[in-house]
Write a structure and sequence with these properties.
heterodimer; A: 221 residues; 0% strand; disordered C terminus; B: 156 residues; mainly alpha; 8 helices; globular
């Protein structure tokens, strides 16, 4: 591993550590939404009612994202799964990792990864078209949104082109490495930080937004 | 001078300027949560359908929860509170006329959209910008007080 790769990993890990530290610091303010003593058993009030009957489950489903925007949601899930899994299970990456550290993950065969890469690029194209075409998305799209899509797509595009030897292989493979490193370095400092925020905010830090000793009624005025 | 720059002088006397320091004091009090929101909102627009106001306004993008936050609190934070009075009035309209704080907006990252709107409302209130309803209430309160004092004076 060359110095650039170490630098990339260093910036990525330190940056992510800093962001995660910030998120953990926010959770320190975690308080019960309803202060003790106001209602008996206040701490044990469930956030959502249990949905047991089929009818209730159906109504819940109808409100969910899966029912409202199923295509976008499915494309989004596939996109994120491929973004993480394709580089990890790629044969060439595993060979390089084995040479550098002596560790390797399970490798998928090259044809499968090639197909998955094309599928990933298709997902990117879907997001790009959605960002330009759909009114809701266009209304809040900024240059940064297109930029992070570009950062995410570039390593895959250059990798696929290098594999198929479409353009000059040497230039493409260097571009592939540089764009991958750039994407990793950009994660903590751009909107790509949602990689960490997604897990922290969804499962670890639900009521962090409420400051110490603040009632819910006091907050929402 | 009055003849040369009448418009400028008129503007200087009539336009109000928001108190940037007071706005920044409120924004700094919620710095981490605002930054968390603005840094990690990926503009996915999945929150759109959860807003009943948007669905009832023919899917007008300006009623989308993330759009409301970006064009109210987001603008205030990006510009470090340096906004004109007209812009602050626009923000007032966004946070009161386009949002009722029903807290049903659903973010995929569980970012707290209602909290952001409530901070923007705090900022507007700190500058004396309140919605029409509250202005009416204030007028009613004053008229009742005036009637009360008149009645008392008549009795005495």
């Amino acid at each position: 591993m060359g110095p650039m790769m170490w630098l990339t990993f260093g910036i990525f890990l330190i940056g992510m550590g800093y962001r995660v530290f910030g998120l953990v610091k926010l959770t320190a303010k975690r308080q019960r939404l309803i202060p003790p003593g106001v209602y008996p058993n206040a701490g044990s009030i469930p956030i959502e009612k249990e949905r047991t009957s089929l009818r209730e489950r159906f109504f819940h489903f109808r409100r969910s994202l899966m029912a409202r925007q199923p295509v976008t949601l499915l494309v989004s899930i596939v996109f994120h799964l491929l973004l993480i899994s394709v580089p990890v299970f790629l044969t060439a990456h595993n060979i390089l990792m084995d040479a550098a550290w002596g560790v390797r993950a399970v490798s998928l065969d090259e044809q499968t990864t090639d197909l998955l890469t094309l599928l990933f690029l298709g997902c990117c194209l879907f997001f790009l078209i959605r960002r330009i075409w759909v009114g809701n998305v266009r209304s809040i799209s900024t240059f940064g949104d297109f930029a992070i899509l570009f950062f995410a797509a570039m390593p895959f595009l250059t990798g696929a082109m290098a594999y198929h030897q479409i353009f000059d292989y040497q230039i493409l493979i260097i571009l592939h490495i540089l764009s991958g490193q750039f994407m990793l370095m950009a994660i903590p400092f751009t909107k790509l930080v949602h990689m960490a925020v997604f897990f922290f905010n969804r499962w670890a830090a639900r009521p962090v937004m409420f400051k110490k000793n603040d009632l819910i009624t006091k907050e929402f005025t | 001078m009055l003849l040369v720059f009448p418009r400028k002088i008129k503007e200087a006397y009539t336009t109000l300027t928001p108190d940037t320091d007071a706005i920044m004091k409120i924004l700094k009090g919620h710095k981490e949560t605002i930054e968390l929101f603005l840094d990690s909102c990926v503009h996915c627009t999945f929150c759109a359908d959860s807003c009943f106001l948007q669905t009832n306004h023919k899917k007008d993008p300006t009623f989308m929860p993330s759009h409301k936050v970006i064009h109210s609190l987001g603008m205030l934070y990006r510009r470090k509170g340096r906004v004109s009075w007209e812009e602050l009035e626009q923000i007032r309209d966004v946070v009161w006329k386009k949002c009722v704080l029903c807290t049903r907006c659903d973010c995929l990252l569980h970012l707290d959209i209602p909290k952001m709107i409530s901070i923007a409302r705090d900022v507007c209130r700190s500058q004396g910008l309140v919605p029409e309803v509250e202005q009416d209430l204030e007028a009613i309160r004053k008229s009742v007080e005036a009637a009360d004092t008149a009645e008392r004076a008549a009795v005495l």
